[in-house]
From TrEMBL:
<feature type="domain" description="TonB-dependent receptor-like beta-barrel">
    <location>
        <begin position="419"/>
        <end position="930"/>
    </location>
</feature>
<keyword id="KW-0998">Cell outer membrane</keyword>
<dbReference type="InterPro" id="IPR012910">
    <property type="entry name" value="Plug_dom"/>
</dbReference>
<keyword id="KW-0472">Membrane</keyword>
<feature type="domain" description="TonB-dependent receptor plug">
    <location>
        <begin position="78"/>
        <end position="189"/>
    </location>
</feature>
<comment type="similarity">
    <text>Belongs to the TonB-dependent receptor family.</text>
</comment>
<feature type="region of interest" description="Disordered">
    <location>
        <begin position="35"/>
        <end position="54"/>
    </location>
</feature>
<keyword id="KW-0732">Signal</keyword>
<keyword id="KW-0798">TonB box</keyword>
<dbReference type="GO" id="GO:0009279">
    <property type="term" value="C:cell outer membrane"/>
</dbReference>
<feature type="signal peptide">
    <location>
        <begin position="1"/>
        <end position="28"/>
    </location>
</feature>
<dbReference type="Pfam" id="PF07715">
    <property type="entry name" value="Plug"/>
</dbReference>
<dbReference type="InterPro" id="IPR010104">
    <property type="entry name" value="TonB_rcpt_bac"/>
</dbReference>
<dbReference type="InterPro" id="IPR037066">
    <property type="entry name" value="Plug_dom_sf"/>
</dbReference>
<keyword id="KW-0675">Receptor</keyword>
<dbReference type="InterPro" id="IPR000531">
    <property type="entry name" value="Beta-barrel_TonB"/>
</dbReference>
<protein>
    <submittedName>
        <fullName>TonB-dependent receptor</fullName>
    </submittedName>
</protein>
């Protein structure tokens, strides 16, 4: 048999046997598979002798299972890797420590996640998390077994929440990768590892079954997985086959209450009863309840064939299908800020800084034919669904040309598609007697006359909004690698050379959000005296009373019954569109179902060609201590092509002049683009083995990250705001930027790692990234057809520095007596600081870039940590894990408020407890969000056209969600 060319030490092989298996990334690291039974491992402890020296003491055989075995497996990968890496391993089949890959990743030092469905839409909470960031950077590349993987919905990256956690053997995070790892991860690279049949001896059968329950959603949902793996000696050599299937469902509920932006006011009505020259009044209050459901199905299969000691052939396949839907009921009043004044005989109350605290608002805005006092109040029912399917088929071989030279080849096809439909139906009323109070922990809202709010004749059908998206992505990759082993060199161990080429096509269709009026005081219909389609007279039975049950777990005071569109309206898009046609027909304009237009479709093509060369070196004696490492360079050329359309505004139905109507009538123009750039990416990794249990690492490299496909879209949508006198007050636009260049970083890491027992570890890592050409959305003046437009699009900015440190610690207290010896603890802490690279804010009222306001990089928390207490003794495996991250900038311009929006400090406690009946069966409970944590969102600074900037961060919203519990049964043979 030919030996493994990575030349791991025999000590590494022995330690690796503690886990059931260690499958490492293809091409990045060929770690030896563990073949010993993980349940029985000989360990040793060191104690201080009489002479003060540490002496080895043999202990009896101990049981190493569950969480502890997974931690040991992860530490073996970290210790024996040629570069700095952090791992999470699943010792038991289907047993990653969390229910999703995203939640698992947040346990790794330096890795954080969002708790929203999208960072620019923090109105919608995500229980399982999204948006993986490494050291504050969102440019994270996803791999599957060392190969590219992506989700069409997220463009270039992978939506980790789409991937079944039950199929994973482990997850590795590379923060300063070597030259052989595929380029594209500026923050880092996340590699998802699945199992292969040659990873274990003989037959392996395993499975899981569980049912999970959310105490807020009050729903039970099932999950299950099954794995079969075996290997056989045949007349054609050894063959192995593995199949792994998984099904998972989840239902959660989240409640949110929000405050609209605080706006500076100087008018007498709001200043009455105060000594202030100006005050800050919010535009309203929102509350929303969101029911989320997802179904995730996955299948993984692998075939390996070793016809001889010199040759191996393999085929791997993974398919993941993710179906998600959510329904939201929201109630909100957000009348025009400048029209809100205190009700007759009342005044608003403010704090010492002139910020609104409480009051009873009415509005002076136009009511049409209605005489009702009060404020504009809306309810809506919204339903969104998404289906994403990703498949990955790869095949390859390795062949030893001679004892010193091995040739490897690999081909991969990834296809992903995602379809979205989002539909909202709005009703409205003008509600008298509403009061709200912001002085407590949460806002409180009350209504003087609940009967008025419950009467359908006081509401009218106001508007509808739909959104369509269809994304398709396909990538074909080929790779060839050559590895040469040096036999007689004192320093050189082996060299690797490789070529890789990809062809990627991406087609994105996005209709935008098509809001349109049904009826309103400015869009009346001729069949009623008020001109409004009231709920009792139109589409009777399509609205009903709804009371938010147990809203915010009873912690928030809200009005009782309100009228809402029924669920079937929001969920049956086609039928509802036909019913709403009557409003369009009565008036001749208004909301109509959206359709894809030319500017909604963007097609992109990308070709990459990369070559790398690396040398692995090492010497145990020359420097007095063992030293090893690698040095290499990767050169990659990227060619891009983007095809799309721009569109001028259509002023033909406005009060604009005839000259303007002739110039701007919704005409299209092409916006195609071609590009090419080359990156040279050197890397160096050195390890100094100061002692058998102590090693020091130094790493330096240059990394790059290409812009996301959504940023590269070749579209330009221009708009004009016309006034009643025919003048145009605003010329604006939104666009992608196909000319974006990649972000690059010169990065340096150094780490000190102390493995002071077979399951105990203490490490410290310092890192520094000098980032250039970072991406930021800006609003700038652009000229088209002799007209200046304020166009918002992504740009490459100058440069910035990201630096910080990570600390990690794991220890099991085996020296404690009796049952106490089962206790262990693991934790990590990360500090990240940035300077230089900043975003700018945009004035939400004038759309101009604000000077003097500098914002940090999006997604960057200065501090984050994990701490977990573990108990492993006899049949018991218990874990309590707390994760926390500090405040960070979600987006420079929130989709709803257009203000910079922040996520406040957030922490959550999760736990699990398993009992092992024998070598085959275990039963346990997993729990998430035991602390019933509240997610808090902030907004600001707020800037004004006269140059004043209100630097305060106001609370935008609060969200609560389920405590989730799962009863889990695991089995393996």
């Amino acid at each position: 048999m030919r030996r493994n060319r990575l030349a791991f030490s025999s000590r590494s092989l022995l330690a690796a046997a503690i886990a059931l298996q260690l499958a490492t990334p293809a091409w990045a690291q060929d770690a030896t598979a563990a073949q010993d039974d993980a349940a029985n491992t000989k360990t040793s402890k060191t104690t201080a002798g009489k002479d003060g020296k540490r002496q080895a003491v043999d202990l009896d055989t101990v049981e190493v299972r569950g969480v502890r075995a997974s931690l040991i497996a992860s530490q073996v990968i970290k210790r024996d890797s040629e570069q700095i890496v952090d791992s999470v391993s699943a010792e038991d089949i289907g047993a990653l420590p969390d229910r999703s890959v995203t939640e698992t990743l947040q346990r790794v030092s330096g890795v954080t996640i969002d708790h929203f469905m999208a960072r620019n839409d923090p109105d919608h909470f995500s229980a399982e998390g999204s948006g993986v960031m490494i050291r504050g950077l969102t440019q994270v590349r996803g791999e599957l077994n060392g190969r590219d993987i992506f989700s069409a919905a997220s463009g270039r990256g992978l939506s980790f929440e789409d991937v079944p956690a039950e199929l994973m053997a482990g997850v590795d995070v590379y923060k300063n990768p070597s030259a052989e790892i595929i380029e594209g991860g500026l923050g880092g690279t996340v590699n998802l590892r699945t199992r292969k049949p040659f990873d274990q001896e003989g037959q392996l059968i395993g499975g899981t079954a569980d049912v999970n329950y959310g105490d807020f959603s009050k729903e039970y949902k099932p999950s299950a997985s099954f794995l079969y793996s075996n290997r056989w000696q045949t007349g054609l050599g050894e063959m192995g086959f593995l199949i792994d299937v998984a099904h998972s469902e989840l239902a959660t509920r989240s409640d949110g209450i929000q405050v609209e932006p605080f706006v500076r006011r100087t008018d007498d009505a709001v200043l009455a009863g105060t000594d202030f020259d100006q005050v800050y009044v919010p535009g309203g209050i929102n509350w929303r309840e969101l029911d989320f459901h997802r179904k995730r199905d996955g299948i993984g299969a692998a075939f390996q064939w070793r016809p001889s000691d010199a040759t191996e052939v393999y085929v791997q396949y993974l398919r993941s299908k993710y179906d998600m839907n959510w329904q939201e009921r929201a109630a909100f009043f957000n009348d025009s800020n400048d029209a809100i004044v205190p009700a007759a005989g009342t005044t608003f109350q403010y704090d010492d800084n002139g910020v609104f605290v409480s009051g009873s608002p009415v509005s002076s805005s136009w009511r049409g034919n209605l005489t009702t006092d009060g404020v504009r109040f809306n309810t809506d029912n919204r339903y969104a669904e998404q289906q994403t399917t990703t498949s990955d088929l790869s095949a390859g071989f390795s062949h030893y040309l001679n004892d010193n030279l091995v040739l490897k080849g690999d081909m991969q096809l990834v296809q992903s598609e995602s379809d979205n439909l989002d539909f909202t139906v709005f009703t409205a009323t003008y509600l008298p007697g509403l009061s709200y109070d912001l002085s407590g922990k949460y806002p409180s809202v009350s209504i003087d006359d609940p009967a008025y709010a419950a009467d359908p004749s006081n509401y009218f059908w106001a508007a509808a909004m739909d959104h369509l998206a269809k994304n398709r992505g396909r990538q074909l990759s080929t790779r060839v690698d050559l590895e040469y082993t040096f036999q007689d060199s004192s320093w050189l161990r082996f060299a690797r050379f490789g070529l890789r080429a990809t062809d990627r096509t991406q087609t994105n269709k996005n209709s935008g959000y098509n809001w349109g009026v049904l009826t309103d005081n400015w869009a009346t219909i001729p069949t009623t005296a008020s001109g409004l389609a009231t709920l009792d007279a139109y589409l009777s039975g399509s609205a009903h009373l709804y009371t938010f049950p147990n809203f915010f777990r009873g912690k928030v005071n809200l009005p009782g019954n309100l009228q809402f569109p029924v669920d079937s309206l929001a969920k049956n898009y086609a039928a509802t569109s036909e019913m709403f046609q009557q409003f369009y027909d009565l008036r001749g304009w208004g909301w109509a179902p959206d359709q894809y237009n030319l500017q909604d479709t963007n097609r992109q093509f990308e070709r990459t060609e990369a070559a790398y060369a690396m040398v692995y070196f090492g010497n145990d004696e020359a420097l007095g201590i063992p030293v090893d490492g690698n040095v290499g360079v990767r050169i990659v050329q990227t060619k891009t092509q983007a095809d799309g359309y721009g569109i001028y505004p259509d002023l033909s139905a406005t009060a604009a002049s005839d000259a303007l109507k002739a110039l701007y009538h919704g005409q299209y123009f092409s916006t195609n683009s071609r590009g090419q750039y080359t990156d040279v990416l050197p890397s160096l990794n050195v390890r100094f083995k100061l002692r058998d249990d102590l090693q020091w690492r130094v790493a330096a490299s240059r990394a790059m990250a290409r812009p996301d496909f959504t940023q590269l879209q070749a579209y330009l949508q221009l708009a004009a705001t016309t006034e009643t006198d025919g003048t145009v007050s605003d010329w604006t636009g939104t666009a992608g930027n196909p000319d974006l260049k990649p972000m690059t970083a010169n990065q340096f890491d150094t780490a000190l790692e102390w493995y002071f027992d077979n399951s105990d570890l203490l490490y410290a890592t310092l890192f520094y990234k000098d980032v250039k050409n970072y991406f930021s959305t800006q609003t700038r003046t652009e000229t088209y057809g002799d007209q200046d437009w304020l166009v918002t699009r992504p740009y490459n900015m100058d440069k910035g520095v990201i630096q910080g440190f990570e600390l990690g610690y794991t220890q099991f207290f085996d020296s404690l007596p009796g049952w106490l010896s089962g206790f262990g603890v693991t934790g990590n802490f990360t500090f990240v600081d940035s300077s230089g690279g900043v975003n700018t804010a945009t004035d939400p009222y004038s759309n101009t870039t604000v000077t003097g306001v500098k914002l940090p990089l999006e997604g960057l928390s200065r501090r984050s940590y994990n701490i977990a207490g573990i108990y492993e003794k006899g049949p018991w495996s218990i874990r309590l894990a707390y994760n926390w991250r500090s405040r960070y900038l979600l987006t420079t311009s929130d989709a709803a408020t257009h203000l910079p929006t922040w996520a406040d400090d957030y922490g959550q406690l999760d736990g699990s407890a398993f009992y092992r009946f024998d070598d085959h069966w275990q039963l346990g409970i997993q729990a998430n969000n035991l602390t019933d944590s509240t997610t808090k969102v902030l907004m600001g600074p707020t800037s004004y056209a006269d140059g004043e900037v209100d630097t305060r961060l106001y609370t935008r919203g609060w969200f609560v969600n389920d405590r989730r519990y799962s009863l889990v049964l695991r089995a393996s043979w």
